[in-house]
Structures are given as structure tokens and as C-alpha cells.
Amino acid sequence: MQNLKKIVLMAWLLLVTAFSHSQTAVPASGPTNMFGNNEAVGKYANIRGIKLYYEIYGQGEPLLMIHGNGGSISCFSNQIPYFSEKYKVIAVDSRAQGKSVDNQDSLSFEMMADDFNGLLDYLNFDSCNVLGWSDGGINGLLLAIRHPSKVKKLAITGANLWPDSTAIKAADYKWLMSYYDTLGKVPQTPEIANTRKLVKLNCFQPNISLGQMSQIQCPSLVIAGDHDLILTEHTALIAQSIPNAFLWILPNSSHSTLIDYKDRFNEVVGEFFSEKLKK
Questions:
Q1: Does the pTM exceed 0.85?
Q2: What is the rounded CA–CA span in Å between residue 70 and residue 98?
Q3: Distance between CA 84 and CA 199 in Å, rounded?
């Protein structure tokens, strides 16, 4: 059973890589591996029946960072130091991931979007900029759709609107479905059950219509790599469906655009948030 756990966790890491009240903020100094593990600033918000873990860095306009499936705050280790020089960065572990505690059986992107809305209310932020990667990008889209007043500007990378081979590369989607089936055939320890819940999320969600996309009114920047597991034409469709959105496809980049091009990514997204990015 121990070997099986190791295999499952290794597979999950591969999946992540592929898909790979008032607070006193602190500067984001020190080693990057402290992000998501910083006892000096880490706090929990008890909202919506879960404990949502978050860390805040810097001063300025609030900037919410939302990671991808199976990830954590640490996914933004290359972004937090850069953006915390100008913004109050709110980095959060999504429900059922990282240090956030979620004992519920169900999981949906809509639930998570409502979590982030609840966190912003808890922290007394009327609105913020949002940066989302992969599932975090989906959450950003739904936050802008369901709680439009909360999102000032939205930058997303590697997001999709629905879960099939018209959005995700066929081989990747096939592997994901197979992995979900495999997880259902092993003893359902709490760890395995939580992992299967997260994998199931990407197998059958999101289900966002183009009509919903047209409701997004905040300035938006839609990003992907040209070798992303999200099909380029699908990323283009997302950008086309949001009024006046920017589209940025990074050459020779995987799903991990904010790692593959970390410096350029930070610069361009920073220009977008500061209104220096022009069409």
C-alpha cells in the first residue's frame, strides 16, 4: 500500500506540472520556498464551512493569486516577490489543496469562486486584481462572472471553459480520465479520496458557456503557451469571448508560462495591471 501511495503521489505531481479582518502585510523577502509555509504571516479564514489558508505580502492595491489543481501558494514563488513590491498580494490555498482544510465530498469551480469572494469579504476588500493559473484561471473567470464587482482586472494563464478534447489536448484528457478511473480502484484513504476529488474536478468541469464569458466586463489578459495542454484555438476563443480582452500566446512555452518565462511574464502582467499594456 505504501508503494501504491508513492505511485499515486508521483502521478499527481506530474499532473500538476502538466496542468502544472485587516491584516498587517510584510515584505516578500527571504527564500522563495517560504511561500505557502510562512508561519509569520500564514493565517486561516473560517468561511463557508472550510478553513481557507492564506498569506499576505506587500502594500498597495490588493492582488489575489489563485493556483492550479493540486497546487498551493508556493506555485507563485516567482511572482510573489515581484508583485509584492507594488501590490498587497493575497496568496491563498484553494479548498482541499495546500494547507486549506475541506472535509466535504463535493467540489466545484463555482464553490471555489464563492470561497474567494468570501475571503475578500473577510479581509474587507471591495475589489482586487486577480492572477490565476490553470484551475486558478478558471476560478478567476467564475469570480468575474459570479461576483463582478470584486474583480478589477483579471489575468489568467492556461484556463479552459469545458473539459473535452476541443479544449484540452486529446492525449492529456484521455490520460486524466484513465487516472481518475485508476484512483477509483484503490483503497479510498482520506489522501486518495481527496486526490480523486481533485482529479474528478478536471475530468467533468468546468462548464462555462460563451454567453457567460460575454458578461465579463473587467479588463482581461488571457495567456497560454504555444505548447500548452490547453489548445491554442481554445485559448483564443476565451479571449475573443471576453469584451476587449488581450490575448498573449508565449512561444516555446508549456502550461507553466509563469515559470518558463517568469521574468517576462511578470513584466507583461505587471504592465497590464498598471494600465501600461496597450492594444
A1: yes
A2: 8
A3: 31
